[in-house]
Amino acid sequence: MTQVFKFGGASIKDAAAIRHLGRLLAHFPERPLVVVISAMGKTTNALEALLAAARGDDRDDYRARLESLRGDHLATVEALFGSTAGPVTQRVEALVSELDRRHRAHAERERPFHYDQTVCFGELLSTTIVGAWLDEVGMATEWLDARELVVTDDDHQSASVDWKTTAERVRGLDLADGRLRVTQGFIGATPEGASTTLGREGSDYTAAILAHCLEAEVVTVWKDVPGLFNADPRRFDNAVQFDRISFSEAIELAWHGATVIHPKTLAPLQQKAIPLTVRSFLTLEAPGSTIAGDALHDGDVPAFMLCEEQTLLEIRPRDFAFMDEARQHDILGRLVTAGLHAGLIDAGAMRLSLCLDSHPARLEPLVTSLCADYSVARLDGLTLLTVRHPDDDLLRALGEGREVLAERRNATTAQYLFHTRECPATWHIPE
Ligand SMILES: Nc1ncnc2c1ncn2[C@@H]1O[C@H](COP(=O)(O)OP(=O)(O)O)[C@@H](O)[C@H]1O
Ligand SMILES: N[C@@H](CC(=O)OP(=O)(O)O)C(=O)O
């Protein structure tokens, strides 16, 4: 049965990490195996900055950024292949030249389209290097272009998958020859062949798309943490790892801010009952966490998600009218247009409170638009804490010494909005 692995930017950030990846994969001789790979390290951020430079007037900045991207990838190739680097160097050089050419061709097009034609190069570069390295260390490898497999609409930067066509193409692959398949996460293409992206951090989702279409046995996402915890172990000093958790519960955690898994990843797997394992690429012997169908242990321990850099908007009609459905509809529609997600929505008779990511490029146009028609009060510098399966004592302890600026609670979930300045750098789950 086919397996799908996914490796993120941290696991291939430099030559040493790619060597380590080769050693890790040598422990998994079973085939078919499809390996989905993100861009190296922070390359996607670097490509976003390159795009901004390309669309601005600063040619020198653009040239310097392109050169830095080229230099970083070539240095990795050199460190990996040494005297036999020639052919891979040529392929990397060709990709960087193509990226440069496309910039000039697309600079006048709308930004989301230009974004996708640029940013897809992060994954094209990384998979070119990693695929060649796996071949070099004796793993017969075939490089697949995800843009020929994952067919999407043309909603650039956040494209939706055409599941029917994607399934036809993916099922058309013949994976039976014993070779490892390496392909890119995060990217796809329209039926006409324009590159698209699935939303930042979307490589987990690609692994799920391919697994769904291939009816794979299991998906493993290899992370820099041993598994899925009941809170980000980098932010909570006593977080505990889940051995097993249901799809439904994991979807809630990811949706509310457990960034270890892209929220879109789980539903396509749940539909085909394909388990997802979260494992550490650093400690191969650690068993990881399994997300599967049964809900036996959901709610055994509470879980905590933090969303920082939040802004609270309190929106009131100007004419003493109620905040009725028509006005809520109007306001939430403007959120959709702005591309913003509200982590917490709370309505009163004459007020709608929204907690939003303080993403300046998206938030500022929204605030301007709302201020034209409503009275808007704004508070920045906030942290949204979401707790799954809390009890009253726990919530009391978490709120102690902190002003609650907004809250929401239902049978399974409580959310509190705090001033970030009143929150600790490292949290401790009250015992
Ligand atoms: N509930 C959680 N359990 C484990 N890790 C979490 C959780 N919430 C957030 N994280 C963070 O997710 C990070 C791994 O995800 P990410 O960096 O996006 O992976 P990648 O980019 O390699 O796919 C960890 O370093 C950890 O800080
Ligand atoms: N490279 C893309 C897609 C991705 O998923 O990356 P990672 O797996 O490293 O989070 C991004 O940074 O958004």
Strand content: 15-25%
Whole-number total of structural domains: 2
Taking Cα atoms only, what radius of gyration do you get, to the nearest Å?
Answer: 23 Å
State the CATH topology of the largest domain: Carbamate kinase
If you had to describe this structure to a student in words, what would you say it looks like?
The structure is a single chain. With about 425 residues, this protein is of the alpha/beta class. It has two domains: about 5-225, Acetylglutamate kinase-like (Carbamate kinase, 3-Layer(aba) Sandwich); about 305-420, VC0802-like (2-Layer Sandwich). Helix content is about 40%, strand content about 25%. The chain contains twelve helices and 16 strands. The protein has helices at about 15-25, 45-55, 60-80, 85-105, 110-135, 165-170, 205-215, 245-255, 265-270, 325-340, 360-375, 390-400; strands at about 5, 35, 140-145, 180-185, 185-190, 195, 220-225, 245, 275-280, 290, 305-315, 340-350, 350-355, 375-390, 405-410, 415-420. The strands form three sheets. It has an eight-stranded mixed β-sheet with strand order 3-4-2-1-7-9-10-8, sandwiched between helices. A six-stranded antiparallel β-sheet has the order 12-13-11-14-16-15. It has a two-stranded antiparallel sheet with strand order 5-6. The longest helix is centred in the N-terminal third of the chain and has 26 residues, at about 110-135. The two termini are about 45 Å apart. The model has no long low-confidence stretch (mean pLDDT about 95). Aspartyl phosphate binds near residues 9 and 201. Aspartyl phosphate binds near residues 44, 122 and 203.
